[in-house]
Amino acid sequence: MRLTIPDVTRKKTAKNSGGSDFGVRLMTFRKAQDMSQVQLAKAARTTQRAISYYETGLGFPPAPLVARLARALKISSDELLGIKPQAREVSNFEKLNSDPESRRLWRKFQQMAGLPQKDQRAVIRLINSLSTAQGSEARAS
Hints:
Blueprint: H1 21-32, H2 37-43, H3 48-55, H4 63-73, H5 77-81, H6 92-98, H7 100-111, H8 117-140
Helix pairs in contact: 2-3
C-alpha cells in the first residue's frame, strides 16, 4: 500500500490559476492610481487582506464594497465590474454640444433673448432669408 501526502502548500483553487477578470481589473485600476493594497483598503474601508483576496481571484466583494472600491479608484462600478456600456444613439443635443462652433452659435442665439422683441423678429427674418437662400443655391447646384 502506497501512502500519498497531499500538497498543502498549493492554494486549492482552479479559479486562482490566472486570477479572475474582476481581480485583474481591480489590480489594474489600483496600480493606475498608483495605490498600494493598503491605501486602497483604507480608502474603501476594508482590509489589505480582502483586497489581496479579491485581486487573486479567490472571491468577489459584496455589492456595497464594490461601490466603495470604485469610488476610491475614481471609476464607475460598471467599469470595475467590466460591464460594457450599451451602444446608444447620440442625441441632437449631444451632437450640438460636441462641436465648439455649434456651441458658440448657440450662445449667440441665446443672447437674442435679451434683445427687444422688434430686434428679435429682425434677426429671425435675417436667419430665415439666409437659410432659404442657401437652400435654393444647394438645389441649383
